Every structure is written in structure tokens, then in C-alpha cells.
């Protein structure tokens, strides 16, 4: 969706013909490149229109049980996030610009609107998950730890899925929106020269909808359908020259461009008609979208364009991308009665719980039996959920967790207070008891006083008194017996009460579980007034009509195009010659136009390929420099045997696309490998903290740091002593690879003066005799004598020994050897020692029509 711009508009949208015309800047009067798509939106179109025409029918399909994917593709800053999400300010419930909301918030409303308008008997289970792919890592935007790189798995029933991805059950628009906004806040966004809030990751918000409805065959059976909707906001392709990205932004851009070019390769392979292999595994993005591209999913691609002439190349590339994607044929199918449907599991659980409750009420099952049954059921459910997804937590819990832990601490404090309160309440009770005991004591004392008075009276009648005493003793005994009986009865009563309490609690638990299970499912026909239902139905009908109209319009356009095609070949009966001439002229004009279009297409394609190649080579070159730096660093820190030992214990993980390196510690002369289970990585980090690093000399100097970033070249020519050391190391490393073939690139300066700009020229190694000798002394001498010319090689500087064999031969094919030297090109005739070889001059190289490569980083003058 083009955004308004003050620059010259070079994109014309023809919505009626569903065509987009792109004019090349500087080519006045030339024919535009024309592309036809299902729908075209100019800068005056509205978000509602985009949703009605692109989103609505896809969401309806998902509600019918299809899988759907909608993704926005395009150059950075073109409006992908705007189209998918809309401006952040529009998402608020009270926002005045709610009509600017994008596809995702509209989808959320559509889904629950549909549920509310469906029959009451229908049951729905709605869940969602939210992930981002950042620097080729899959991060859970709703997860407890969103720095963990999750793994992609494949299962015959579930298809491709992300292991341990958090999914949350939602029952209403506000709940789903809360989750969405909380996840959005975790997304990686950064400022670039082209977009203040540029998405630095690809994000996938997935909504899973399961529907259960009774089959009308009198068996009471239910039909379950499960649809899944992926709403994808891709990060935009970007050129470093425009975004001026450096550091982390540049790393992100490299990863973004690589994954987008992997997506492009998948699309190409799917439509070129010759590829037998589709490279889905080349990136996490293509792997996750595998079902959406050529699989069983209904997919809508939205191409966002910039209309500015400044972005002509990127706009053309996006249009080609979309044009190819348009040709992909998917085979969508409804997911009926899927084995892993959660709704089915929940329904079964509810049934079983109800049966248990009934049993408890009629047969009086014991609390212990109940407990065991509930525990078994809960475990069973957890296992089922764990097979694919993490066990869901409630929306409120999740939001609380995402907002931080503060609330929980507060709740704990409150509980503590509650406890204190309870104790406070207990205290007065204890006091009362004490008072009562004191009272009883006083009463006893009174009795004693009275006895004393009686004693005086009874002194005259001792027998009587003794009898009385005996009676008292008997009474005391009886009292003791009664107390013992009372205690026993009390204990029995307590036990009975406890038992009753347990049973009541179990029953309550059971009922709560049933309530909770039922709560997770949403019944159709809720909350809506009859009038709202009618409106919703009318809107749906209108959408259907609109869809039918669009289909008809498309058919008519197609017929018109076909007729025009036919006209070009039809022989007509002409009444006079002039008519025939006129018609033929029109036919010729049209054929000319077609021919020109085809030529343009070929030219665009070649340019695009060249652009892609340059971008990729640039990335390879950058990565090769990084790799060299890390290699150098590791070699400075560790011995070859140590590296070998650790490599032996390491494994390459295809799923993670990364090395799993076990923890290790460098201590004195030994390498210790602490077990991963025993917190090995933590131990390793502590060891690292204990080490102090010191660098000899004034190595903090910026220049030196820069030179180091460039890799080994900094050490090669600047100081002979260092150079010698490096040479020796590299020679050792590569001399034992005699049979690997490689290629050589010569980056030749266009003009032979010191301010030259490099025009790199590629020459395949196969054009050079594999046993040549190169005399490179001249290059290094020239360098050392202070000339601007220099020689830089990656990654095999062993070539630089005097009269050395061209060890570039030994370079593996994926690591190009780069020679950048004036001297090499000029003083090239004399190979020494045996065979002769002449490196071609620039003219000769150019005559070979070898394609120029990208600009190479120039090395600093030392
Ligand atoms: N159709 C539009 N109408 C109004 N504003 C728009 C439109 N499209 C884009 N914008 C604005 O342009 C800016 C960049 O858009 P957005 O962030 O959506 O680009 P993007 O393609 O997602 O970029 P990136 O790939 O860098 O994430 C935003 O401020 C956005 O609001």
C-alpha cells in the first residue's frame, strides 16, 4: 500500500483494470512496466477496504476449517506494519482513529463477531500464539523467557510447528487484543534512516480456531474442524546505502535480507517449472511458511510499494516478487476431525468429569478415589498438551506475567497479612478461654470455702462427712470416665467432619474443573441482541455479494484480455483495403508493445538477478571478514589441539542451524569439559570473569582496532614481523588441502592512480592453470614502499610467501580468494620458477565480459 510522498510519483494504480504501471525515472515517454494483480490499492484506499477485499474471505475460510496465511512484503518503510496492524494510536478502545486499524485487529473482531452470530449449539475453542524471527532465532513473544531460541519440529499430524511455543486460550475480543498488544511490546523495533519504527524481525501472530458442531444423523456425534490463521508482518528488505545501518542494525539487516532472499528463492523454485527441490530449509521464515507456500494453506500476499522514483529499483523488485508469488498454486483443504484437536479432548474431559461427579453423588466414592481420578485426568491432559505446545495459562495470568512480577509479590504480602489477621482473631479466643478457666477456678474456690464451712458443721458428724467424701471421689471418677468418653466422641466427630469436608472439597474441585473446562469453550450465539445478529448477518451477505462481484469482474477482464489476444491472430474479412490496413496497424502496434514488454521483463529479470547477486556477495564478503576475525581471535586464545578436542565433542544441529558446543574451561595447560547438566555454561562464564585480558602496547588505538576488524590483512604488510608470523600459520593451515578447487577474484582498480575506485572483476579459477606460480613480491614491495596499491587476500595469505605456489587453489569454493592489487595487474608477466602464467590486464578481463562484483572495502593505509 503506497504511502504518500513528496517525491515524484512513479507508480500509477489502475484499480479498474487491476493493473499497476511503473515508470522508470529519467525515461520520459517510455512505456511503463505493467503488472496485473487480484486487487490494487492506490494511496486513497482505506484500511476497511483492504480488509473487506483481502482479509474477510480468508478469515471466513479459516472459520470453516482451512489454514490461512496473510503476509505483507515490501521494502522497509513502505507500510507493511501499517497495513497489518495500523498505527499504534488507533488500537486503543477510545481512539478516534479506529478506522485506521489494520488487518490484525479487524481479524480479531471478525472472529468473535462470527462466533457470536453462529448457532448456540456450535462450540468454539480459540487460541493464539505470537513469535518473531530475529537474527534467524525463533523467539516467543508471549513466553516466560523471550530470549530462548525455539526449535522447529515436524509431525505427520500437526505438520510444521514450533516446540514449546506458548499458546493461550482466549474467549473474547478484549482478551485476544490484550495478548496481541502485550506481545507487540516485546517485538524488536529500531530506528533506521528510512523508518523511525522499523521492524527488525519477522513476526507471526497465529490464531487457532476449533469448531465443534453436531452431525445431524441422530447419532449425537460431533464434527470438529480446526483452522489456523498466520498473520505475518515481515521485516522490510533494505539497502545499506539507504538505511545507513551499522553495528547491530547492519547485522539485523543482513539477516533480514538473507531470509527474504531465501523466501524469494522458494517462490522462484515453486513457479519456475524446472526446480525439483524447493529450498524451504534455507531459513527459519521459509520453513515456518512451508505450508503457506505451495502447501495446503490459503495464502494472501500483500505487496507494499513506495511510489517514489528514488525507490524505483526496490519497487520493481517487489512487483516481480509478487508477480511470481501470484503463480504459486496451493492445495487448500479443510482440516476435519484432526487427531490433535484440543476441543475434542476438552469435551471428553468434561464428559468424564461429569460421570465422576454423578458416581460420587450416587455411589459415594471416597475422596481419595476422586483425588486419584482427577490427578490421572490432569496428567493425561498435560501430556496431550505437552506433545505440541506448552500448557496454556489463563489470559490474566499471562498478562500479569508479561507486565512483571510486582503484583505477585504484593499478593503474597496480602496473604501474609491475612495470616496475621487470622492469628489476631485467634488471640482473643485464647484470652476468653483463659478467663473462663479463671472463672471456673474462682467457682471451685468458692465451693472449697463452702466445704470448709460444711466441715465445721460436719465435725460433729464425721461418718457423714466420710460418706460425702467417698461420694465425691466416685463422682470424680465418673467425671473422668465421662471426659474420656467425651474426648473419644469428639475425636470421632472430628474425623467424620474432616471426611465430610474432604468429600465436599473434592466435589467442589470437580465442579470447578467442569466449569473451567466449559469456560474455555465459547458457545455460539452469545452476547448479541437479535438486531446485532441481523446486522452481522447482513454484513456477511454483503461481503459474499462483493466477493461474487469481484469474481465476475475478474472473469470479464480475463475474457477481455483473451479476446484481445485472439484478435491478434484472427483473419478477418475486410470490405476495403483501408480497413484492413488500419486493423493490421493496430495488430502490429499491439505486437510491438508485447514484444517490448517481454524485452523489458527479461532486462528487469537480469538486473534483479544481478542486484541479488551483488547483495549476496556483499554479505558473503562481510561475513567472511567477520569469520576471519573470529578465527584469528580463537587461534590467539586457543591451541589447534584444544580447538580439535572441543570440535570432537561438538555437534551441528540442523534444526537450530547452529553448532552445539559443550561448555569448556581453559585452565593452565588443560581444557576441562564440565558437564552441561551441572551448569557447565555457568561455570564457564565464571572462569571467564576470573581471567584478566591484557594487550601489549598501545593496542587500544582505533586504527589498529579497525585494521583488526578487516582481518588478517592488517598484519600482512604493515609489519614484516607480524606478517611472517601470520603467513606461517596460514600456510600450515592450508597446505594440507591439496585437492580442493577454488576460484579467484581479481578486484582491479579502474584507473591506475591512487584515488581509484575499485571495479572488481570476477574470474573463475577454472580459467587459470591450476599449477601456476605467482610472483607477488612486486605487490608486497610496492605496498611496503608506501604505494596506495595493496594486496589483500581472503582467506589464504600463505600465497604471499616469496615465489609461493598459488595456494588460492586450495581455497574451498565457498570462500572466494580476493586479490586487490594494482601491482598484480600491472607487473604480471613474470611468473617465476618454472611455468609461465600471465594474469590478464583489465582490458583483457573486461573483454572476457566478466561481470563486475560489488565494491570491496579498501584497506587503510598503514
Ligand atoms: N497507507 C499509509 N497511510 C498513512 N501512513 C502510512 C501508510 N503506510 C505507511 N505509513 C506510515 O509510514 C511509516 C512507515 O510504515 P511502516 O512502519 O508500516 O513500514 P514497514 O513497511 O512496516 O517498515 P519496516 O519494514 O521498516 O518495518 C509509519 O509511520 C506509517 O504509519
Question: What this model shows, in words?
Answer:
- Helices cover 50% and strands 13% of the residues.
- With 862 residues, the protein is α+β, with helices and mostly antiparallel strands.
- Among the domains are: 11-91 and 98-336, Kinesin, CATH 3.40.850; 462-523 and 532-608.
- Residues 1-6, 386-391, 405-431, 695-842 and 844-862 have low confidence and may be disordered.
- The site of adenosine-5'-triphosphate has 18 residues, from helix 2 and strand 11.
- Residues 685-694 have a biased composition (Basic and acidic residues).
pLDDT averaged residue by residue: 68
Helicity level: 40-55%
The overall strand count is 22
Low-confidence stretches: 1-6, 386-391, 405-431, 695-842, 844-862
What's the CATH C level of the domain at 11-91 and 98-336? Alpha Beta
What radius of gyration results from the CA coordinates? 40 Å
Oligomer: single chain
Shape: elongated
Biased composition (Acidic residues): 414-424, 695-704
Binding site for ATP: 74-81
Domain Kinesin motor: 1-328
InterPro entries: Kinesin-like_fam, Kinesin_motor_CS, Kinesin_motor_dom, Kinesin_motor_dom_sf, P-loop_NTPase
Secondary structure layout:
Elements: E1 11-14, E2 19-22, E3 33-36, H1 47-63, E4 67-74, H2 80-84, H3 103-117, E5 123-134, E6 137-140, E7 152-155, E8 159-162, E9 168-170, H4 173-185, E10 189-190, E11 198-199, E12 202-214, E13 222-233, H5 240-243, H6 247-271, H7 284-288, E14 297-304, H8 312-325, H9 342-363, H10 367-386, H11 395-403, H12 406-458, H13 462-520, E15 522-523, H14 530-569, H15 577-637, H16 640-649, E16 651-653, E17 658-660, E18 665-667, E19 670-672, H17 680-690, H18 702-709, H19 713-717, H20 720-734, E20 744-749, E21 758-763, H21 777-784, E22 817-819, H22 822-826, H23 842-847
Parallel strand pairs: 4-13, 4-14, 20-22
Antiparallel strand pairs: 1-2, 2-3, 5-6, 5-9, 5-12, 5-15, 7-8, 10-11, 12-13, 16-17, 18-19, 20-21
Helix pairs in contact: 1-3, 1-14, 3-14, 4-11, 9-10, 9-13, 10-13
The structure holds adenosine-5'-triphosphate.
Residues 1, 3, 74, 76-82, 87, 195, 197-199, 235-236, 304 line the site of adenosine-5'-triphosphate (ATP).
Amino acid at each position: 500500500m503506497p504511502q504518500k510522498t513528496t517525491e515524484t510519483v512513479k507508480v500509477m494504480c489502475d484499480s479498474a483494470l487491476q493493473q499497476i504501471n511503473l515508470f522508470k525515472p529519467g525515461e520520459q515517454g517510455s512505456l511503463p512496466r505493467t503488472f496485473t494483480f487480484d486487487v490494487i490499492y492506490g494511496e486513497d484506499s482505506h484500511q476497511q477496504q483492504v480488509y473487506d477485499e483481502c482479509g474477510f474471505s480468508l478469515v471466513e475460510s479459516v472459520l470453516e476449517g482451512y489454514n490461512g496465511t496473510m503476509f505483507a512484503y515490501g521494502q522497509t518503510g513502505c507500510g507493511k506494519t501499517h497495513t497489518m496492524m495500523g498505527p499504534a494510536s488507533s488500537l486503543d478502545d477510545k481512539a478516534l482513529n479506529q478506522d485506521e486499524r489494520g488487518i490484525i485487529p479487524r481479524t480479531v473482531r471478525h472472529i468473535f463477531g462470527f462466533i457470536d452470530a453462529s448457532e448456540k449449539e456450535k462450540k468454539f475453542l480459540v487460541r493464539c500464539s505470537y513469535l518473531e524471527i530475529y537474527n534467524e532465532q525463533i523467539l516467543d513473544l508471549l513466553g516466560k523467557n523471550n530470549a530462548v531460541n525455539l526449535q522447529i519440529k515436524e509431525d505427520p499430524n500437526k505438520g510444521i510447528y514450533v516446540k514449546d511455543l506458548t499458546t493461550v486460550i482466549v474467549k473474547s475480543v478484549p482478551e485476544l487484543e490484550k495478548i496481541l498488544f502485550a506481545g507487540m511490546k516485546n517485538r524488536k523495533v529500531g530506528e533506521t534512516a528510512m523508518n523511525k519504527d522499523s521492524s527488525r524481525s519477522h513476526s507471526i501472530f497465529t490464531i487457532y480456531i476449533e469448531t465443534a458442531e453436531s452431525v445431524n444423523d441422530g447419532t449425537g456425534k460431533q464434527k470438529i474442524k480446526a483452522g489456523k490463521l498466520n498473520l505475518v508482518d515481515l521485516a522490510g528488505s533494505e539497502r545499506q546505502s539507504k538505511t545507513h545501518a551499522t553495528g547491530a542494525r547492519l547485522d539485523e539487516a543482513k539477516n533480514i535480507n538473507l531470509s527474504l532472499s531465501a523466501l524469494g528463492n522458494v517462490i522462484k523454485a515453486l513457479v519456475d517449472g524446472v526446480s525439483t527441490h524447493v529450498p524451504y530449509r534455507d531459513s527459519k521464515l521459509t520453513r515456518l511458511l512451508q505450508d503457506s507456500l505451495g502447501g495446503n494453506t490459503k495464502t494472501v500476499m500483500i505487496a507494499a510499494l513506495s511510489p517514489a522514483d528514488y525507490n524505483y529499483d526496490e519497487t520493481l523488485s517487489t512487483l516481480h516478487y509478487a508477480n511470481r508469488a501470484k503463480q504459486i498454486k496451493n492445495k487448500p483443504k479443510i482440516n476435519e476431525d484432526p487427531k490433535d484437536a484440543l476441543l475434542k479432548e476438552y469435551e471428553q474431559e468434561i464428559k468424564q468429569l461429569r460421570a465422576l461427579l454423578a458416581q460420587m453423588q450416587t455411589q459415594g466414592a471416597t475422596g481419595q478415589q476422586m483425588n486419584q481420578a482427577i490427578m490421572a485426568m490432569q496428567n493425561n491432559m498435560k501430556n496431550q498438551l505437552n506433545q505440541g505446545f506448552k500448557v496454556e495459562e489463563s489470559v490474566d495470568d499471562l498478562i500479569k506475567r508479561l507486565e512483571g512480577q510486582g503484583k505477585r509479590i504484593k499478593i503474597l504480602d496480602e496473604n501474609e497479612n491475612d495470616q496475621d489477621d487470622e492469628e489476631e482473631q485467634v488471640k482473643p479466643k485464647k484470652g476468653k478461654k483463659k478467663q473462663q478457666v479463671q472463672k471456673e477456678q474462682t467457682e471451685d474456690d468458692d465451693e472449697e470455702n463452702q466445704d470448709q464451712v460444711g466441715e465445721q458443721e460436719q465435725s460433729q458428724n464425721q461418718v457423714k462427712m466420710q460418706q460425702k467424701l467417698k461420694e465425691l471421689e466416685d463422682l470424680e471418677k465418673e467425671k473422668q470416665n465421662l471426659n474420656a468418653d467425651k474426648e473419644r466422641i469428639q475425636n470421632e466427630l472430628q474425623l467424620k467432619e474432616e471426611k465430610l469436608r474432604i468429600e465436599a472439597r473434592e466435589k467442589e474441585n470437580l465442579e470447578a474443573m467442569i466449569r473451567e473446562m466449559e469456560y474455555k469453550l465459547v458457545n455460539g450465539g452469545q452476547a448479541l441482541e437479535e438486531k446485532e445478529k441481523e446486522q452481522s448477518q447482513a454484513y456477511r451477505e454483503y461481503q459474499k455479494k462483493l466477493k461474487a462481484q469481484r469474481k465476475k469482474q475478474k472473469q470479464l477482464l480475463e475474457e477481455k484480455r483473451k479476446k484481445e489476444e485472439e484478435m491478434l491472430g484472427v483473419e478477418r474479412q475486410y470490405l476495403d483495403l483501408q480497413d484492413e490496413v488500419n486493423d493490421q496497424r493496430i495488430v502490429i502496434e499491439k505486437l510491438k508493445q508485447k514484444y517490448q514488454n517481454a524485452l523489458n521483463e527479461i532486462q528487469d529479470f537480469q538486473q534483479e538477478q544481478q542486484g541479488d547477486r551483488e547483495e549476496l556477495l556483499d554479505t558473503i564478503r562481510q561475513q567472511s571478514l567477520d569469520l576471519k576475525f573470529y578465527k584469528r581471535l580463537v587461534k590467539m586464545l586457543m591451541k589447534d589441539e584444544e580447538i580439535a578436542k572441543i570440535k570432537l565433542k561438538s555437534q551441528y544441529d540442523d534444526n537450530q542451524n547452529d553448532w552445539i558446543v559443550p561448555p569448556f574451561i581453559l585452565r593452565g595447560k588443560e581444557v576441562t569439559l564440565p558437564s552441561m547438566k551441572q551448569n557447565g555454561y555457568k561455570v564457564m562464564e565464571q572462569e571467564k570473569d576470573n581471567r584478566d585480558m591484557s594487550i601489549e602496547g598501545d593496542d587500544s588505538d582505533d586504527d589498529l582496532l579497525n585494521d583488526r576488524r578487516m582481518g588478517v590483512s592488517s598484519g600482512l604488510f604493515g609489519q614484516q614481523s607480524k606478517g611472517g608470523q601470520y603467513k606461517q600459520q596460514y600456510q600450515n593451515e592450508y597446505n594440507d588441502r591439496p585437492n580442493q578447487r577454488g576460484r579467484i577474484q581479481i578486484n582491479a582498480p579502474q584507473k591506475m592512480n591512487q584515488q581509484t575506485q575499485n571495479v572488481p572483476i570476477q574470474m573463475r579459477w577454472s580459467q587459470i592453470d591450476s599449477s601456476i606460480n605467482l610472483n607477488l613480491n612486486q605487490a608486497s614491495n610496492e605496498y611496503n614502499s608506501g604505494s596506495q596499491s595493496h594486496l589483500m587476500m581472503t582467506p589464504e595469505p600463505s600465497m604471499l610467501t616469496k615465489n609461493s605456489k598459488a595456494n588460492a587453489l586450495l581455497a574451498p569454493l565457498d570462500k572466494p580468494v580476493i586479490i586487490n592489487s594494482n601491482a598484480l595487474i600491472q607487473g604480471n608477466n613474470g611468473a617465476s620458477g618454472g611455468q609461465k602464467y600471465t594474469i590478464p590486464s583489465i582490458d583483457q578481463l573486461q573483454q572476457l565480459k566478466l561481470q563486475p562484483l560489488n565494491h570491496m572495502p579498501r584497506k587503510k593505509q598503514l
